[in-house]
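Input sequence (494 aa), recorded before submission:
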Amino acid sequence: MKVRVITTGSKAKAVQVVNYFKYKTIVLKHIGSAHDSKELGELKLLAYEWIKNYVGELSLFPDENPNNLLLINHSSFLGIKYRLFYDTVYRLIDILGLAELPSLLNDLVIIRIFEPASKLRSLDLLEQFFGVKHNRKTYYKIAPKCIELKNDVEKKIIRFVESEYDFNYDLLFYDVTTLYFETFEEDELRKNGFSKDNKSQQPQILVALMVSKEGFPVSYEVFAGNTFEGHTIIPTITKFIEKNKVKTFTVVADAAMISTENIEQLIQNKISYIVGARLGNVSSALLDQIDRSIIREDRKSIRIKTDNGYLICSYSSIRYRKDKYEMEKQIEKAKLVVEKPSKGKKLKFTQLKDTKISLNEALIDKNRKLLGIKGYYTNLQENEANNEMIIDRYHELYRIEQAFRISKNDLQTRPIFHFKEEPIKLHMLICFIALVISKHIELKTGISIKKFIDESKKNVDGEIHNQVTDRILTINAKTTSKMNELILKLFPPH
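Predicted structure, token format:
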């Protein structure tokens, strides 16, 4: 195989790669025609590069890289890939013990973190950003296995959080949120109900989530959209306890979860609880006891035994000023309605008697007594957790609100366009794994998942098409020092 230069009829120099076989010259590749010595030298280099590539394909042990030589006018830039991000997250998936899950599911988790989109667009983005190809039909093939996959995923995540964060089930935070659908048609799972997104006309599902004291998600459940949120806590927790054979368990939840029935079931199941108390609903006798007993100084608290467990009340001067300001605003609005009833409507501090609107003085007096006071119910004895500890633990409930914020904002768990129960549940599984990985990244790096993605996007691979060899060359950019720091935090040397 040789490079041959011949003179054409137009006096140009044609460069060819030829082979001689049985006294015949076989042209393997016409490289091009040169009109000066510079062009001729360039075409000869391209011819030798083509031979390297051709010989390399035939050889079992090619010792040269045929892409080492790149000439700009014989190359084209194809675009960039974010393989460092992909490889980093896949490494985390492996550490979590989830690498054995269907590859499509894990890839959808990665793109959900990187750039949330519909399933169809996610498949396009996987190819565009990472060079990963999948068949759309595969998603619906794995959907029937979603319940089995969910159990497996939660077991592995529990195992991970036990070893990585010393999770021991002693304290879990519980809350629910709603996710609505881009449709107005209901079914068995998607139901109209009270919407936290103010989309009450659209069917939704209810999602219950449990996180550790670090804010790490450990379990979730999906309910029909018309389920009352207070009815979700007992089945979710008892299922979690049974599945994980938990002995000691304390759940922290907001006031919406509390009811006499729930309290009874928590006690029957020997589950410790710390929940918010709606003091506006307490009896007059209990309100008077709170008013007489409370010391209106910051960080002062009282403990009263009630049918719902111990009621702990604390006072805050900051809360007092805020409550007082809000109450006075509402009273002023109520007074305007009383003065001009035809132009207003019934408000919190108004009452209707014999078609006449008046101020509800009893309710105003009740609210005055509660200014600056916050209440919490628990069944933990004082020697197990004192008042200050109960209050501090309840205030850590923001961790689950933070998890929902990541889920709804950064991962864009909704809008959901799925119409069948299995794909909906598989979508929720993908979002749950993405939330787990996002939270782990935040806990380990100390920055938000959004900032982590922004830094990752500075680390790209360029793809160039070598037109001579018809191969694609990947050129890796130098990893930024900040990204190196983040990776070291995620994967510290042992």
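Checked by second reader. The first helix runs from residue 37 to 58.
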